[in-house]
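User: quick one, fold this
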Amino acid sequence: MHEIILPEAKPALEWVNNRVLQKVSPKRRHAVAQSEFVSALTAWTHERKNGVAATEWHFQVRPPGEIGRTLVPDIAFLSYARMPLEQLKDTDIPRVSPDAVVEVRSPEDAQADIDEKTRVYLGAGTAVVFLVDPQRKTITIRDAAGSRILREDETLQHAALPGFSLVVRTLFTLPGEDRPK
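Assistant:
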């Protein structure tokens, strides 16, 4: 089985639905949601010392029986259980899928592309994909058990991120607005 390796570009390139797809430069809603989510996830990883959370991180992902391909999640969490710290320190582009992926929807995103990226991540071993929709102010959780939607007044928690929790509203409110405690 071969793999598709894409050149470096800004914004990053991904292989989705058998074509090159360039990521979109985020606008405010996307950027704020991404920033708030990665800040909470990074604080959790520092507290637990269990892995790394980062934005726009390139992964070479390969579901069984398929080609390997480049995907660049808005946010990825890769645990030291999945890739030990010493190995991760020497790896710029992991050849494993992240434990958890966060994709923040942009108005330009096609649903077919979102669905395909989710399918590929889950097929390659990602435990959970969080689909953040700033327009609807929701998070859709997709994992082996299926799909469920969280609204602004709910709290995100998942077994793939033990001890992590995030009030959904946090992703959609600006400093100075009524923020959850």
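User: anything notable?
Assistant: Residues 27-172 form a domain with the tt1808, chain A fold (CATH 3.90.1570.10).
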